[in-house]
Amino acid sequence: MNKRKQVIVVGAGFGGLRVVQKLCKQPVEITLIDKTNHHLFQPLLYQVATAALAPSDIAVPARAIFKRNKNVHVRMGEVVDVDTDKKKIHLENGQSLPFDYLILAPGTRHSYFGNDSWEKFAPGLKTLSDALDIRERILMSFEKAEREPDPEKRKHHETFVVVGGGPTGVEVAGTIAEISARTMRKDYEHVDLDLLEIILVEGQSRILNTYHESLSEKAARDLEQMGVKVMRNSMVTDVNEEGVRVKVTGDASGNGQSSDSKEVFIKTGTVIWGAGNAASPLLETLKVPLEKDGRLRVDADLSVPGHPDIFVIGDAARQVNPNGRETPAIAPGAIQHGDHAVRVIRADMAGKERPAFEYFDKGSMATIGRARAIAQIRNWRFSGFFAWLLWSLVHIFFLIGFRNRFRVMAEWFWFYLTFRGGSRLITRKRMKPEPALQDQE
Ligand SMILES: Cc1cc2nc3c(=O)[nH]c(=O)nc-3n(C[C@H](O)[C@H](O)[C@H](O)COP(=O)(O)OP(=O)(O)OC[C@H]3O[C@@H](n4cnc5c(N)ncnc54)[C@H](O)[C@@H]3O)c2cc1C
């Protein structure tokens, strides 16, 4: 009798989930392993971090997704090692599982470019736990500002710094501006909107730099209108409990006014990091050369060089076509990788030649705030309400689970009309005595 192939999929993110959804109809046994028990819709994570949505709106237990698929076995656990010779993976509890095919889709974590001590003061946004931590930091800042009589100290609590002008940084900064101006103003009697400062710090000369220049300029203008100060050409050189030190080389305002280089210290109690990514350390255990950011450059069929039965897909993979085009680290890239890994396994099972991967660019969109977004689809570029509507529809469509789609749509509709709603609970942090603020030069 022909034994069914054992396929192990590591990661229930966009890439891993897609593999299991597509492969579960084939005569194979699939084990899906994730550190968490859920699939997370990362594109809406910033809405949990800014208290607009609840965690359960954007996450679904992996077991619930595959409850009807008898050949899919879900395990919660962290894969810590891959034994490529014995074709086994090892879990953190010492267990090991054999595989015929292994698909690694472990995504990335944020990177502090070698300054890991900054993480404590400037959390990044990748997991639900990160989002809840950031949400409580933001809400705690408002609570502290509310009870602080000294204006200088109140300003410290009312200053928010977001590092990184990519989609995550822009979304977070825009939403903090929006909820501060509308929702928080009503909730907190003493929060002083004149003191409120939201600063987006970007190392390069423009934000959202994968978009056409006209769209990134439009996004910066929108943010400024919403009350976010956009600092370009500004590199963070230190983060501590007092605030952020930034080296500005050139024109920070984007209006061509200065070419000087200077250091500034921004006093703040809330810093959010959205500046860099590094691939999962799990890839190191494959013992093949990795890129500088830890990603693995895969072969044309998405397999690991020298290991045709092991695939790396999604954000953890660097896939470059012969014409030099790369798969971007976005959800459609991970989903298309997932589809392709299944195509390759099916080709193997049918005794056919493996196809090469080709990324199909469906366009990209980023939201800035209520009724404000930018979109770039082929040579078509647009912004404003229509882009935001399209962004909202696409995100609702790709959310997993009818209940989640319905709840998110209802929340957004309610927020659009009333500027109220969301999930503004503080459950993990407590008020502590404040350290005295030190003067910084
Ligand atoms: C805040 C934010 C906003 C984003 N916004 C957008 C957007 O608007 N549009 C867009 O297209 N893309 C967006 N992205 C990018 C998109 O989410 C990623 O490209 C996509 O999630 C990558 O999918 P993946 O399967 O490679 O990894 P992920 O979705 O990150 O999934 C990786 C999974 O692997 C698990 N895992 C990791 N290591 C292990 C291990 N050792 N053992 C077991 N499990 C492990 C993790 O728990 C996780 O569930 C955003 C990302 C973030 C963080």
Characterize the main sheet: 6 strands, mixed
In the CATH classification, which architecture of the domain at 116-275 applies? 3-Layer(bba) Sandwich
Rg on CA atoms, Å = 23 Å
Task: Name the strands of the widest sheet in spatial order.
Answer: 5-2-1-9-21-20
Q: Which ligands accompany this protein?
A: flavin-adenine dinucleotide
Gross morphology: globular
Q: Structural class of the secondary structure composition?
A: alpha/beta
Low-confidence stretches: none
Task: State the helicity in percent bands.
Answer: 25-40%
Number of strands: 25
Q: How many helical stretches?
A: 10
Span of the ends, CA to CA: 76 Å
Q: Within the CATH hierarchy, at the fold level, what is the topology of the domain at 116-275? A: FAD/NAD(P)-binding domain
As a percent range, the share of strand residues is 25-35%
The CATH class designation of the domain at 116-275 is Alpha Beta
Q: Look at the structure and give the mean pLDDT.
A: 91
